[in-house]
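Good morning C.,

I know you're traveling, so I'll keep this short. The sequence:
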Amino acid sequence: MRAVIQRVQYASVTIDGVTKGKIGQGFLILFGAGTGDTREDAELLAKKTAGMRIFCDENDKMNKALADVGGAVLVISQFTLYADCRRGNRPSFTDAAPPDEAGELYEYYVRLLREVHGIADVQTGEFGADMKVELLNDGPVTILLDSDELKRARKS
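The tokens, ready to paste straight into the viewer:
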């Protein structure tokens, strides 16, 4: 499971000309599930996401988490995080989870952010939809999380 976390001043997602989700300061998260990913991966990723300290404190050090700044989250499903570009010029997406599994894991991840990690304002796009995402990246700060890497780090 992968998440690209972007610290933003604002972000929004539009579907067919209608704004579906909109946040101020917080995280825009591009979320992708891969083949073999489980609820355990979502739990690990949600915990790491909620605790990520990438907002600046009074000394201009990245030392504050979402909760510390009253930040919101916009989560966008994005299977293209599993693009395999090793051969040719057209990416393969065979490493992405099948849509039914990916959709369930996406919804579970969002629910974990809200219910387990207490993030009050969690907005979403629409799984599988053609979405237009607008954001103002703050910093820019962009972090890539991969549940396989997080699991390997826990074991060492």
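Safe travels,
E.
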